[in-house]
Design a protein that fits this description.
single chain; alpha+beta; Ubiquitin-like (UB roll); two-stranded antiparallel ribbon; elongated; disordered N terminus; disordered C terminus; binds zinc ion
């Protein structure tokens, strides 16, 4: 309430002691009091728009004097003035007082509020229509993929840039690539599904063809002689611990995704072969001596964890 009233005053009461005729609100200056001071203060200036009348208002943005509503409107149109005080205008340190501080504080509050409102607006976050999503799911079904679409608001839904290319009759996937041994994650966009995993990974872990910045980050992979295995989490499996599909690097994405459930987009875990035992395959049971809920760690595995290895606990 308070802030609203202040903003209102800001826009209609122009300098102390002026009365705004634009504003019929009782919140604004009282008639008599204002008029007297007004005469004294403003008579020095004439309207900068028509030049003939005595100025009664001063624009909080451009500081131009005006005599009446038509003149205020005219000046706004002529110099593209919004008539709203410029909250980000330069203020020299010597003129920086408590009011300026308060104004800055309110400005930041406004920004936070605007951002929050935008984040809550469901319509703004609906980049893809339901029709399009239905079409995608249908297409996926034809490729024997169970594509699950999350409700609006989920991060994965927002990120997903997957689309079906009508011309080439194939999916161009949004991919998340996780390299646990380097603690790195990358997003790949528009990856055609006829590419083999080997081709897709070239950009990341090929000694010659990878991007230099990525190569530096994924040093562990570049230097390793063992090669990599690619895993994808089995979404449909109901186990206390995750089960994984091992994908075939020589086969295309299309072949690899067949008969699998994908939530929004595929997330591929690219793992050095030395660590591949951490990924339990689908149908593979935890060994008899371990209970699935609390797997006992062998000496060997404990060492691996100490080396900072990421484990998916879900
Ligand atoms: Zn005028
Ligand atoms: Zn103005």
């Amino acid at each position: 309430m308070e802030a609203e009233r202040e903003r209102h005053e800001e826009n209609c009461v122009l300098s102390p002691g002026t009365k705004s005729e634009l504003c019929k609100d009782s919140d604004c200056w009282s008639e008599e009091e204002g008029a007297v001071v007004l005469k004294r203060k403003m008579s020095l200036h004439s309207c900068e728009t028509c030049g003939s009348e005595e100025a009664r208002y001063r624009c909080p943005r451009c500081m131009k004097y005006s005599c009446s509503l038509p003149c205020v409107k005219k000046h706004k149109a002529a110099i593209q003035c919004s008539g709203v005080r410029d909250k980000a205008a330069f203020v020299s340190l010597s003129k920086f007082d408590e009011m300026t501080l308060l104004s800055d504080y309110r400005f930041l509050e406004d920004v936070a509020r605007t951002y929050d409102c935008a984040a809550r607006d469901v319509l703004l976050h609906k980049p893809t229509s339901y029709k399009f999503l239905g079409f995608m799911k249908n297409r996926a079904r034809k490729c024997k993929i169970d594509l699950k679409i999350l409700p609006v608001g989920f991060k994965k839904r927002r990120e997903n840039s997957t689309f079906f290319c009508q011309k080439q009759k194939r999916f161009c996937w949004h991919l998340k690539l996780i390299f646990p041994q380097s603690h790195a994650e990358y997003m790949a966009k528009r990856v055609p599904d006829d590419r083999t995993l080997h081709e897709i990974l070239k950009k990341y872990i090929s000694l010659k063809e990878s991007d230099p910045v990525i190569r530096q980050r994924l040093k562990a992979y570049i230097l390793s002689q063992s090669g990599v295995s690619v895993f994808m989490k089995a979404e449909s499996e109901k186990h206390s611990s995750a089960r994984w599909y091992e994908l075939d690097s020589e086969k295309s994405l299309f072949e690899n995704l067949k008969n699998k459930t994908i939530v929004e987009y595929p997330t591929l875990h690219v793992v050095l072969k030395d660590f591949r035992n951490d990924f339990l395959g689908v149908g593979q049971e935890t060994s008899d001596t371990r209970s699935p809920a609390l797997p006992a760690l062998s000496q060997n595995e404990e060492e691996e964890i100490e080396e900072g290895e990421i484990r998916d606990s879900t």
